[in-house]
Amino acid sequence: MLIRRFSEHLFEAGTDEAGRGCLAGPVTAAAVILPEHFENPLLNDSKQLSEKQRDGLRPFIEEHALCYSVTHLDHSVIDEINILNASIKAMQECVLKLNPAPLHIIVDGNRFKKVGNIPHNCIVKGDSKYLSIAAASVLAKTYRDAYMLKIHEEFPMYNWKQNKGYPTEEHRDAIRKYGVTKYHRMSFKLLPDQLELDFEEDMSFQGVRLKITR
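== Ribonuclease HII ==
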């Protein structure tokens, strides 16, 4: 059974992110403050839920939360400041958008950076321990999945509607065949046998092609 709060504060926000390990698309974070008597027996770490369960929980969380926010940070930010810093930045931005402002923050994982003077605690596997972090994990995952479904229509050959940008063999085969898009994270190792990247503009492809130099 998930725990309601870590601190004594009613306005305690849980925050989490989705998409850290993807080759394409944004890292997406969410932050949620739940009311004191919030209950939902299904709510858990989003990774433990089916897509149907997550999609059903999203409107329930949005309706019953005191407040929530979601932030996408795209590949350009990830490539500039690295995925860890981008994940933290996305969560920080979510917290700053909450109204009412939280008096305490609990964060899934073991790394975070202070937001103003708000105290925070990092909790490893917090999304399977605390209700607000679990709620944030569901929102982050469902909003990111919806984003990937949208850009799948632009580049269907990568099958992002299925793999959501994660490094499946199918996704990597598509990179080998078609090159990379404007949504790929160029600071990531896109192919396991990648030794050197050579980029060239390809206006017909609306992005950048990847060449493998051996």
